[in-house]
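debug: dumping io for the single-chain case to check the tokenizer round-trip. Nothing else runs in this session.
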Amino acid sequence: MKYLKQRKEMICWAALLNQRGLVTVASGNISCKLDDQTLLITAHDSYLGHLDQDDIIVIDLAGNILEGRKQATSEVSLHCDIHARYKETKVILHAHPPYTVAFYHYYKKLDIFSFESKMYLKDISVIAQHSPTVEDTAPVVKGLAENTLAVLKDHGVVSIGENYKQAFSKIELLEEQARVNLLLKSGKK
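debug: decoded output
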């Protein structure tokens, strides 16, 4: 099997997303750019908390399967369109952080309370969704031009980065601030 090191790294970060409660069961998906035309991507219905080597397939930027027996994630178009637009992006994480989903279901703007968050969570685009799969990728791709993180309303988030740590940290930070916002708003009378 090719790209063993890259697959192991993807499995590690997928497990961390699950351990932190940012994805559950078969929600969420991940891709990693191997070169300008080739990606590793999680397969459809993969359980990120228990990802196997076979749950990671190789595709081209058009979404064609180059290696693997499974079907690509239902969000394959989203990953391909983002990687095609942002050449410097190496990693895309699509997660379903519960506090973030809950916060943006009820509120439009996140109040940022910590100094660190103010540095990293500016101008987050919130893109309306009407189905379980992103059907129109253009608003998400455009939203990522302002920030490397975008919220998919009532769905989840997409984070991009030059590496896993960069993409993961934004999701984790947003989830923390969404939780703080919900706690503070629930205490207001």
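debug: round-trip ok. Residues 77 and 156 are 16 Å apart (CA to CA).
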